[in-house]
Give the backbone structure.
Amino acid sequence: MPKVNLLATFSPDRYNKISINGAQGLLRLLCLEQGQSVPLHKHSNGDEYFYVIKGKGKIKIGEKEAEAESDCIVKAPAGVLHQWKNGPQRLILLSVVIPPLSYEVADEATKMEFV
């Protein structure tokens, strides 16, 4: 099984989006060097959840801005502008995008069957 530190790659030019084990776009690592940012954007058809794996950065969601550090979980709802700004150290985020229409399907898929 791959470890996050082995998957994380950084670029001096811009942040990196890294797909995890072939997960097509819905699950990825975001790797930011010092001072890098993710541009202000939105996902019209999906909520984006972030888990801060390493480092600390500022997240702007709509009009609100807050600091998030290791072990924080943050949600950017579908259709709401959001942006990450990194500070003086590397920042590694786990990003999961979930289309709101799939919540019921996801709940069904995660039900455990006991044997």
About this structure: The mean pLDDT is 88. The first helix runs from residue 4 to 7. The CA atoms of residues 17 and 85 lie 15 Å apart. The domain at 29-101 is CATH 2.60.120.10 (Jelly Rolls).
